[in-house]
Automatic annotation (TrEMBL):
Pfam families given in the database record: HDPD (PF02924)
InterPro entries registered for this protein in UniProt: Head_decoration_D (IPR004195)
Native source organism of the sequence: Rouxiella badensis
Designated name of the protein: Head decoration protein
Length: 226
């Protein structure tokens, strides 16, 4: 009686006369250094495969929104400085060109002039007048959000901290319906041919970024245990 060989990977044995071939994924390239894992939270909205190169959303983020009733149609560009507080700042016009900046506690921080860059220890602002001038009472809300602490596929152009790759996903993770807890490798020798990563990265740059964190990307010629 002949048997059928099924390449099913890490499958369970079932009854019947058959032979199953185990096909390892070969993500781990060597037992040196010894792989070290820890639980991580994968941010909502992602579906990631084992071997994905991840970064942690470790930095505060900021967003500015103009009030719907504003008369002026100028624009505001804002970034964070070292002492930025979590919460909602307000930037309120006192004239066509002068604005008062208040922190989330309602304390006046500075006077900002349209057309002149402002750089403080909390926020860095550039307010540009539009075709319709601002009037007193026009306001922007600037919201600073705390670091999420969750992991996402590392993108080199990100600004939330995930631009720094720091972990390799242990198993497939489906966070499409909400954040999920998964496992991450924080120390390991990893087969570079079995990872997945964002196109903003090159393999050489990932090697350099991860090496100092105890994660070593190796190809088939460098994966021999040492």
């Amino acid at each position: 009686m002949s048997t059928t060989v099924n390449s099913l990977g890490q499958n369970q044995w079932g009854p019947g006369a058959r032979s199953d071939a185990f096909i390892p994924d070969q993500l781990i390239a060597s037992n040196s250094p010894l792989p070290v894992t820890d639980d991580i939270t994968i941010a909502s909205g992602q579906t990631l495969k084992r071997g994905a190169i991840l970064g942690r959303q470790s930095l505060k983020s900021v967003a500015a929104v103009a009030a719907s009733g504003n008369t002026g149609n100028g624009t505001l560009v804002v970034s964070l400085a070292s002492a930025a507080e979590v919460g909602a700042y307000s930037l309120t016009a006192t004239s066509a060109t002068e604005f008062t900046l208040k922190d989330p506690n309602g304390n006046e921080v500075a006077t900002v002039t349209a057309g002149t860059a402002y750089s403080g220890n909390q926020l860095v602002l550039t307010l540009t007048a539009g075709a319709t001038a601002f009037v007193a009472g026009d306001v922007f809300t600037i919201t600073v959000t705390a670091a999420a602490g969750t992991y996402v596929l590392s993108v080199r152009t990100a600004t939330d901290g995930s631009q720094y790759p720091s972990a390799v996903l242990v198993d497939d993770a489906d966070a499409s319906a909400g954040a999920v807890v998964a496992g991450g490798y924080f120390q390991a020798a990893v087969n570079v041919n079995r990872i997945t990563y964002d196109d903003s990265w090159t393999v050489d740059d990932l090697k350099a970024e991860l090496r100092g964190k105890g994660i070593f990307l190796r190809d088939s010629l460098s994966a021999t245990p040492v």
